Amino acid sequence: MNRIRKGDQVIAIAGRDKHKRGVVLKVDGxxxxxxxxxxxxxxxxxxxxxxxxxxxxxxxxxxxxSNIALVDANGKASRVGFKVEEGKKVRFLKTTGAVLNP
Length: 102
What we know:
By secondary structure, this protein is mainly β. It has strands at residues 9-12, 21-28, 31-34, 39-44, 55-60, 63-64, 68-71, 77-78, 80-85, 88-93. It is elongated.
């Protein structure tokens, strides 16, 4: 069971985007793509088949999973723990003890 999943609200705890928040778009092993974090400028060629005009686009690039943390109800970074409730393994926030939806 992964500590961070697609759709989780996270905050950057290291790097140039420290203290910025976003939603996880994709998890790929040790790397995650977060909406609004680690943005780079990408030069794109026009492609009529795909309908792209071309130019310079901002694109979210992967960031290492150790540089982000989940956000709790107070808006602070929180670590994730695991416990068994009613026979199911669930994730919970260490700061508030709140159980995350499965």
